[in-house]
Every structure is written in C-alpha cells, then in structure tokens.
Amino acid sequence: MKRENVLNWDQYFMGLAHLSALRSKDPSTQVGAVIVDSTNRVVSIGYNGLPRGCNDDEFPWGREGGMLESKYAFVVHAELNAILNSPRPVKECSIYVSLFPCNECAKAIIQSGICRIVYECDKYADTDAVKASKKMLRAAGVECVQLTEKISINVNIEKGDI
C-alpha cells in the first residue's frame, strides 16, 4: 500500500523555495523563489542576495541608514534572481515565493509572462509597495494564491559535514 501523507505540488515547491532561501546571506530576511512550468518541472530558482560578482563582505546588509548605507540599493530579490537566472523563457509559468512580491518584483513577474504566484507570507500587505504590487498583478490578470499552511524546512549542517 502506498504512503498517503505526502506533499502536494504547492507544498513541495514552497519547500524548495524555503530551501533556496537558506542560501541568502541577508541577516534579517531570507526569501526563496522557484519558477515551475505547467508540467511541474522546475525552471529556475532564486534567493535574495547581491548581484553576481559583488563581494558579500564589501556591501552593507543592514536595514537602517541612507540608501548607500543599507542593503536596499544592492540586494536582488529572490523573484528577480529566479527570472534572470532562468535558462529559458518563463511565460505561462508559476512562481513560488515565501514572501509576497514587492512592486518591483511584480513588474518583472508581469513582464516575464509568469501567470501565477503562490506565496506564503504577506507581512508587508499594508505597505505601499505591496499595495502597488497587488494592483498591478490584478490588472495584468496574474493569479495570486496564498498557502494556508506554513511549510517548514529543518536543515542541520554541522561544520565539516559537507
């Protein structure tokens, strides 16, 4: 008899998004994104971090201070990283992301042709950036689905295990 208590596709891909988020060096917010096609094949993965070639030790990771003293001018969001790192077009794909996309990521999602967003957390729902994001996504006909159950990934890697 087969095992009954297995992850559904949404849970599985959100778990991959959480696993990807573990690559982020951001001390306060780790976000992961997974782009999946209509046949449930992973097309691309991303996490929030600095652009390729930028040394993680030479840029700020703080949330406070002016534009050049904080992370906000430098960090590429998980959604944009997944879109930019994709080896093929992502039109008609879904994106799984642990945090609802900001307005800048929403623009990239819409322009790339992604048709569905599955997200978990919407803790910035009251901010102007997320309000603008939701307005654009609605206008563009992008489906937004919030997962009702929280997906957690527990990974213990001890130094020397790798």
TrEMBL record:
Keyword presence, Lipid biosynthesis: no
Organism: bioreactor metagenome
Protein name as annotated: tRNA-specific adenosine deaminase
A matching Pfam family: dCMP_cyt_deam_1
EC number from the UniProt entry: 3.5.4.33
Keyword line: Hydrolase, Metal-binding, Nucleotide biosynthesis, Zinc
Recorded GO MF terms: dCMP deaminase activity; tRNA-specific adenosine-34 deaminase activity; zinc ion binding
Family, per entry: Belongs to the cytidine and deoxycytidylate deaminase family.
Residue ranges constituting the CMP/dCMP-type deaminase domain according to the UniProt record: 8-144
Cofactor dependency: Zn(2+)
GO biological process: nucleotide biosynthetic process; pyrimidine nucleotide metabolic process
Gene Ontology CC: one annotated term: cytoplasm
Highest classification ranks of the organism: unclassified sequences, metagenomes, ecological metagenomes
Coiled-coil portions: none
InterPro entries given in the database record: APOBEC/CMP_deaminase_Zn-bd (IPR016192), CMP_dCMP_dom (IPR002125), Cytidine_deaminase-like (IPR016193), dCMP_deaminase (IPR016473), dCMP_deaminase-rel (IPR015517), Deoxycytidylate_deaminase_dom (IPR035105)
Record-linked SUPFAM superfamilies: Cytidine deaminase-like
